[in-house]
Structures are given as structure tokens and as C-alpha cells.
Design goal:
Length: 152
């Protein structure tokens, strides 16, 4: 469907690797914030002055559970090529993008890691879309299939 240049096996492998990498990192970062909410990794709570949080406990729980466990879960679904893995991956990819944007707003700063993880989130979302197109599960594919059924 996408020509000879794109090998679906490589798409799955790359997406699996990205989501596993993000998931493991988020579990580590989230755990640091949960165990030491006053200053995980040397990050002062002063950085939270533009946020609704007084410490890093709630952000740590969100990072650990949604970005961390979600990324691990998504990578497992991609590895086993579960039918709706593209949708699952897309949800957690966009969760990462939203997490980074909200984090930049609340911290009122952008550092290189924000840019890197934002790009990783967009790359994951693009790879998820490729999988959905290949499986003909992308919303446009579904709408076109319904339209073809109606026209018959």
C-alpha cells in the first residue's frame, strides 16, 4: 500500500522500540517523583509555581501510569500485532505529546528534552497512523468503506 520503500516490519519494530524506550523512562521518572515528590532528580518545587501542584506527586503518578505503563502496554500490543494496536499506540503517542505541551506550559520553559520527547511523540503518532492505514482501520478508511456499502 505504501510502496516498496516502507516495510511494515520495520514500522512495527521502530514503533515498538520508541514506545518501550519512552515507557521505561517514564516509569523511572514517575517513580522518582512519587518516591521524592519534593525534589525528584534535584528538580526544585519552585518550578511548579505556574501549576496547580505544590509538589511532584500527582505529576509523578500521571507520568508513571499513563506515559510509563501506557507506553509499555502499547509496545506489547505492537509487538504482538494486536488488531487495534494502531489505535492503542496512537492514544499513548498523543498522550505523550499532550504531556510535553502541558509540562512546558506549567513549567514556563522549554528545554532540549521537551523538544526531543515532543518529536518522539509525533513520530509515534505518525507510525501509528501508518499501521492504521495498512490495516485499513484509519477513520478515513472506515468512512470510505461505509460509503461504498451505502452506494451499492
Amino acid at each position: 500500500m505504501f510502496g516498496e520503500g516502507i516495510k511494515m516490519k520495520k514500522v512495527y519494530q521502530f514503533l515498538f522500540g520508541l514506545q518501550l524506550f519512552v515507557g521505561i523512562g517514564a516509569i523511572g521518572g514517575g517513580l522518582m517523583a512519587i518516591l521524592n515528590p519534593q525534589g525528584p532528580g534535584g528538580m526544585p518545587t519552585d518550578a511548579l509555581k505556574n501549576s496547580p501542584f505544590s509538589n511532584y506527586l500527582i505529576p509523578g503518578i500521571i507520568l508513571f501510569s499513563i506515559i510509563g505503563l501506557g507506553g509499555i502496554f502499547s509496545s506489547i500490543m505492537i509487538h504482538f500485532r494486536v488488531k487495534f494496536a494502531g489505535y492503542i499506540s496512537s492514544v499513548f503517542s498523543w498522550a505523550l505529546v499532550i504531556w510535553i505541551v502541558v509540562q512546558c506550559i506549567m513549567l514556563n520553559t522549554i528545554v532540549s528534552l521537551h523538544v526531543i520527547y515532543f518529536i518522539i511523540g509525533l513520530a509515534e503518532a505518525a507510525l501509528s497512523a501508518i499501521i492504521l492505514f495498512e490495516q485499513r482501520l484509519f477513520p478515513a478508511n472506515i468512512i470510505l468503506a461505509i460509503y461504498k456499502q451505502i452506494r451499492r
